[in-house]
Prior knowledge:
The complex is a heterodimer.
Chain A: H1 19-39, H2 61-92, H3 94-109, H4 112-126, H5 131-159, H6 163-171, H7 176-211, E1 212-215, E2 218-221, H8 225-234, H9 238-267, H10 284-291, H11 294-312, H12 327-358, H13 366-401, H14 403-418, H15 425-435, H16 439-464, H17 468-476, H18 481-515, E3 517-520, E4 523-526, H19 530-540, H20 543-575
Helix pairs in contact in A: 1-2, 2-3, 2-5, 2-7, 2-9, 3-5, 4-5, 5-7, 7-8, 7-9, 7-14, 8-9, 9-10, 13-16, 13-18, 13-20, 14-16, 16-18, 18-19, 18-20, 19-20
Chain B: E1 3-6, E2 12-16, E3 28-33, H1 39-47, E4 58-59, E5 62-63, E6 71-74, H2 86-96, H3 101-114, H4 130-142, E7 148-152, H5 160-176, E8 183-188, H6 191-197, E9 200-204, E10 211-216, H7 228-251, H8 268-280, E11 284-286, H9 287-294, H10 298-310, E12 314-317, E13 320-323, H11 325-332, H12 335-349, H13 351-361, E14 367-369, H14 370-378, H15 383-399, E15 404-406, E16 411-413, H16 417-423
Helix pairs in contact in B: 2-3, 2-4, 3-4, 7-10, 8-10, 8-11, 11-12, 12-13, 14-15
Amino acid sequence: MPALRSYFSAGGFRPRFTLIDVVVLLAVLVLLYSILRVGSGTTASFSPSRLEHVSTDASRIPYDAARSLLRMFVALFFSFVFTLIYGYSAARSRRAEKVLIPILDILQSVPVLGFLTITVAVFVGLFPGNELGLELASIFAIFTAQAWNMTFSFYASLKSLPRELDELSRSLRLTKWQRFWKIEVANGAIGLVWNGMMSFGGAWFFLVASEAITLHGHNYSLPGIGSYVGAAIAKKQLGAVGLAIATMIIMVLAVNVLFWRPLVAWTERFRYETTEASETQRSYLLDIVSRSTWPRLAAAAWAKISEPINRAMRILGRDDVHQPVSARRRRVGDIIFWVVIGGLVAYGLYHGLHYIATAPGVGLGEIPHCVALGAATFARVAVLLVLATLVWVPIGVWIGLNPRVARLAQPLVQVLASFPANFLFPFATLAFIKFGISINIGGVLLMALGAQWYILFNVIAGASAIPSDLREAMQVLGVSGWQRWKRLIMPGILSAYVTGGITAAGGAWNASIVAEVVNYGHTRLAAYGLGAYIVDATDSGNKAKLICGIAVMAVYVVAVNRFFWRRLYRLAETRYSL
Amino acid sequence: MTKTFATRDGGELPVLEGITLDVRADEIVALLGKSGSGKSTLLRCIAGLVQPSTGTVSYKGRPLKGINTGVSLVFQTFALLPWLTVQQNVELGLEAQGIEPEERSQRALRAIDLIGLDGFESAFPKELSGGMRQRVGFARALVVEPDLLLMDEPFSALDVLTAENLRTELLELWQAGEFSAQAILIVTHNIEEAVIFADRVIVLGTNPGRIRAELTVALARPRDRHDPQFDALVDEIYGIMTERAAAEPASADEHDGPLQVMLPHATTDGIAGLAEIVVAGGESADLGDLASLLGFEVDDLFPIIDALTMLDFATVQDGRLSLTPTGEQFAGADIQASKEIFREAVLERVPLVRRIHRALRHSTDGTLREGFFLDLLRNHYSADEARAQLDTAIDWARYAELFEYDAARGEITLPDFAETQRSD
């Protein structure tokens, strides 16, 4: 991150080595070594192997976990780069904005897991016979789980840049490069990191799902904690599954403590004065590192390196008045732009429909079939949301209104939300088989394993944000029981609940692709639903069916978002915001 | 020079009209005006941040294209980057000019020293008090050695004592010739501040902003607020600003478009409160005294005075506010009776309220959507101002119990519609 900030201060300092410095240095060296060791495995050549043949030896776990972790961080890096480029383009160009933002909105709603097959085929085709293709496909899947939220956040921060910062930049005639890093990225840093952390948590699920997949009847698997679990399930080794779960918990916690907490605490400095922090974020690790001499040395070195970069980037020009374009030229440009976009969309639509219509054994009749299947999955999502609401809203409110409980529960729920629910599927599947529960009903439970936490998590936050003077006023007036719920609590938590509901619903749709078909050993349970349909199409490599299934699911998600969630959200924001 | 902003339907709203202004070396000019007089827009035109619609801004005889390289800006809200240290903030402009790190640092330290920030170089803005933050703002503006220093209400976000101290120090630096800037233009809505600072005071009128008056301040520096000449000048400016305010609503009757009569942004509580204070203080009140008594700035006081004169509750003459008989009744009555008086005054004297009221009576069910009136108002005002106008009208009319308003649906309703229609 060039030119972001340097610690370099005017006062001279003598670098004095303390024990802390040594520890920090060693930690960095170990980290570099591990990345090199683990990374060198990603280009190994491979041949497709069946999951049953992947070793579930416990000694493999550290290496597998490290490979998974590396994948997550590589994807995070690409998400960050993508965010900067895409968000900046959308915010800067009026025309690009009209196209890029709706695309982002759709991408956010599309069930990413459904695309896995296509992307795997593409990436494997790029690097035949090499593991790198599969590696990239997995990284891409994780990327799709992280990038959209971060991009939206950055775009929003660019659009809402305080006016005086824009004027400051222009009146000082900052270079565009300076403006981008020192003002625009810095101003968006808090949202970017916060959304990055949330998306990273959600991405574990995709990591697990993308490490072992079936394509054209072949099994592909990458060394990683996800394929380890896949193998353990195929071999019916519950002990190995348990071991993987323990590893997963450790990884989620470690990444939180060692990476996200320090980063969140560090970005506190990017809070613009006009917005007050509700509570300051702290990290012990950051405290230790910043007490050592290294950050200062690094900053001094950084200032040396960044100076020529900043100088070179002067070529990009300065921030100045944007010369107005004549209205007529603008209108002509607009017309050309929209004709081109409209043409592309029409062509794509025609091509897609044609492809489905002419594919052997598919035809346009497939679309109503998919819609019917979608209705079944939709019913599952709806039931899940209702049940999760009935169970978790009262509990969440109780936790949120008790600050002491909330302090303990909040991080725990956060970890639960990050924990990839697909790890728990084998246990649930076993129970279904044992008690003869149909996957048609059990699927709801599987989907809920991951999705429900978002509701709980947000309701806790919403309830704890209800001002205590309002609660006291209600107490004094003798408002209690149902009246208290109706007049204070439900309106108070509504906007937080809606946020949780949207996230939970999105998570549930995605989860339907892994939850409507489950395997345990050679037993396979499949439900009636769009998720199961997509899995079948994937397994048999039927692209026409796959496209049809994904498109219908995307339409379902977008429609429900538009017609239900967005309206509810607007109501919550205008009438019930505290 | 003029400046217009485009309305939504392609029309043009004048913000500034017929402005001719020269700023010369070695002088301080104060731009004084109420909110909505376009004084900040004028400042931004001079800085090159905003392009004038017609006319030109020239710097050293050359018409400006883009940002004015000879000026720097001090912001009301400081506009410091909280993620940079004091020194880094000050160096920002130098860095943009491509100056070497060493020279950058030296010049920044000199500016920091000059402005009294020595020892705070490595502090972050959030560690500083408001006054110290604005000092960083000054250092950042001065370090680039501008010919003209533009200040946009630089003290209005500070408390009274801090502002006074900072003003004095700045003027001392200016007196001593230690300023890197050759001239200062300060935008303010504080009349005393304008008189303390300026060699020339320029008073802008409202909607659209025109130059109302230009006064030369020949008092010796440092200036004394208790000097009778100082007082006289302040009173004169109060007079200029309020006479116009009193004249504006009277000039427009219903035929030349009632929507053009601008409602002052005053709350009903403010109107009633000020009326009561004037009654309690005797026959009439000096505006300058009133402002300092209440700790009000011009922006707080003038809308209420405008409202009182608009409703014919008070008149202003020679910088003194006195209540009319109706105004005295309004101030003396109990809640219900004063609402009654207010209702009559609003219906008679506030065209926008009268127009909405009439439209409601002639509607089929006594309900109209606010969007209808907003569209009408947008022909005369910017989108924000149209909203503010309607909100003020609704606030007054609700208090007068003339009509009801449902914010969620955006509907304005006549209470007892059936009844009103019968009496029509």
